[in-house]
Structure formats: C-alpha cells, structure tokens
C-alpha cells in the first residue's frame, strides 16, 4: 500500500486548491511523485489498464500566470502539472479516472494541493509538451503546489459560489435493492463508510452523477450514472464518466482500509432505471 496515513481521513480533508503558495515543490517531493509515476502498480485501474500520467513543469507553453476556469475563477501560482492521457471511450475514461484520483489522494497525503480540471484549460499548450499516441487525448489535468493558507479565504469563497461543499444527501444518491427504495445509513452495514467516502468525492461542476443500488443479498453495489443532459458535449467526450472513476476509487480505497474485500465486474443486474438518463456502469461484489 502506497499510503502511510488513513485514506479515509485523507478523503475527508481533500479539497480543490486553486491558489498555491510561492514555495517551489521540494526535490524530495518531486522524487516521490516521479517514483510513484514510474511504478506500474500505482497506475493500474480496476480492470488492468495502465493509466498514462505525465509530470510537466511550468514553461512558455504551460504558464504559471493563472489558468482561467470560467465560473471557478483562476488557478494561481501552480508549480507544475500532472497531465492525464487516455483514449476517448467509456472504459478507458473510467479506469483512467480511478487511477488519477488515487494519485490525487496520494498527493493530498503529502500536503500537495490539486484541482481536477477537465474543461476550461488550453489542451494545445499541454499537447506541445507531451507525445500523444494514436487515438489518445488529454481528458484532464491538475495543477500542483503547496496550498497558500493566506489565500484560502478566496478559495472558500469560490467553493461557496459553485456550491462545491453542497453534497447531495444519501436519499438522493443511494438505493436499496431497486430505485424505488432509498438506502438508509443503518441499512448499509459494513459499507456505510465506503459509501459515505464516495459521496464526498469531487465531480465536474459538483453534479454528483453517481447512483448506487445495494443488492438484496447485501453482497453487491451496482454503480449507475445519471447523466446531465448535454453536459460537456462541446468537449467531445463524456466528462461525467471521469466522475464515476473517481467514485469507484474512493469507494474501493475506503473498503481496503476497512479490510472489506471485493472485486469489480460489469454484469448489468437489469434493475429498472428511473429515467432514460440513468445508465448502468459497473458493480462491486464482496468476496
């Protein structure tokens, strides 16, 4: 296990950082990050696909002057970037996001700030710094650096504006056996904490598209996505699939810490969905 502290506590405290300190990332931390990225075990997704993530220093192409994020304001004083590379299909996006979020949590444990960016950044700038294979593209990046505590008031204000801390309650996200019965916390058993850690996960525009159904035998969780109509259509890929990979990561990492064993599989349970926007994605079955 690459984590030395409680992943559950790390999930609880992790927030998107948009204002970084002027302090450069230490050589020790750069070495730790590079070691992480060169260990294949850290980059393998739930179905065995290896994520491609590159560490990019600020340069003439990739600036440190601030990246506009639309309603999210600006990224200020980033010291480097982690750039994701994958193919534009559902399974690849899902596995990539799982691995990228695991890295984000690892950086949080180190005291390094991150901010998932999937939309409003200049992909061309990063494409000039890396080599893309056939069919590959950049789904997201994160700037990295040390959080600027003096500027956290501004970050908190931005979080309030975009309602980043307003997470949907259990009865809007989680279901018991079918989509007509909501899942009460006291009915989740051993899975209460992993499900709560999933609920706390970041998502594009805080849409929180994940929906979970606990099987009647209490042995499996079926993960569904409730698509936001036309969301990210201009980007040419389904950004909300990344959210599902994040959800998978947070759920499984919490399960591991609690010694709850299980495995991922794609076997649609054919549960009646509440609307045409809801789609089955994956299942987690305990061992």
Summed up:
By secondary structure, the protein is α+β, with helices and mostly antiparallel strands.
Description:
The chain has 287 residues and is an alpha+beta fold. The chain has two domains: 7-157, NADH Oxidase (3-Layer(aba) Sandwich); 170-286, NADH Oxidase (3-Layer(aba) Sandwich), CATH 3.40.109.30. It is 30% helix and 18% strand. It has eight helices and eleven strands. It has helices at residues 7-13, 27-37, 40-43, 90-110, 123-127, 152-161, 192-199, 239-257, and strands at residues 52-57, 67-68, 74-75, 80-87, 136-137, 141-144, 174-176, 210-214, 220-226, 262-265, 278-286. The chain has a five-stranded mixed sheet with strand order 7-8-9-11-10, covered by helices on one side. A hairpin with a 5-residue loop joins strand 2 and strand 3. Helix 4 (90-110) packs across helix 8 and helix 7 packs antiparallel against helix 8. The longest helix has 21 residues, at 90-110. The protein is globular. The model is unreliable at 65-73 and 159-164 (pLDDT under 50).
CATH top level of the largest domain is Alpha Beta
Termini separation: 20 Å
Please tell me the overall pLDDT: 89
Tally of alpha and pi helices:
8
The portion of residues assigned to helices is: 25-40%
List the SSEs and their pairings.
Elements lengths: L6 H7 L13 H11 L2 H4 L8 E6 L9 E2 L5 E2 L4 E8 L2 H21 L12 H5 L8 E2 L3 E4 L7 H10 L12 E3 L15 H8 L10 E5 L5 E7 L12 H19 L4 E4 L12 E9 L1
Helix pairs in contact: 4-8, 7-8
């Amino acid at each position: 296990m690459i984590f030395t502290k409680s992943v559950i506590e790390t999930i609880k405290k992790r927030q998107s950082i948009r204002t970084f300190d002027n302090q450069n990332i230490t050589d020790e931390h750069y070495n730790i990050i590079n070691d992480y990225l060169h260990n294949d075990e850290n980059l393998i997704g739930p179905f065995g696909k290896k994520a491609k993530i590159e560490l990019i220093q600020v340069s003439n192409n990739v600036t440190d002057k601030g990246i506009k994020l639309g309603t999210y304001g600006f990224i200020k004083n980033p010291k480097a970037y982690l750039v994701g590379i994958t193919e534009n299909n559902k399974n690849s996006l899902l596995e990539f996001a799982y691995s990228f979020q695991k890295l984000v949590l690892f950086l949080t444990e180190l005291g390094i700030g991150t901010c998932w960016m999937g939309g409003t950044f200049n992909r061309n700038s990063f494409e000039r710094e890396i080599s893309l294979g056939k069919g590959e593209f950049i789904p997201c990046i994160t700037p990295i650096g040390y959080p600027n505590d003096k500027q956290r008031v501004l970050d908190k204000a931005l979080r309030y504006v975009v309602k980043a801390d307003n997470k949907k309650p259990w009865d809007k996200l989680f279901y018991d056996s079918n989509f007509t019965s909501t899942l009460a916390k006291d009915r989740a058993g051993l899975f209460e904490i992993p499900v709560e850690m999933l609920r706390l996960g970041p998502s594009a525009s805080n849409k929180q598209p994940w929906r979970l159904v606990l099987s009647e035998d209490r042995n499996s969780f079926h993960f569904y996505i409730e698509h936001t109509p036309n969301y990210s259509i201009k980007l040419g890929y389904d950004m909300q699939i990344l959210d599902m990979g994040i959800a998978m990561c947070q759920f499984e990492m919490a399960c591991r810490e609690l010694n709850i064993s299980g495995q991922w599989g794609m076997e649609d349970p054919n549960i009646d969905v509440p609307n045409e926007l809801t789609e089955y994605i994956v299942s987690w079955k305990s061992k």
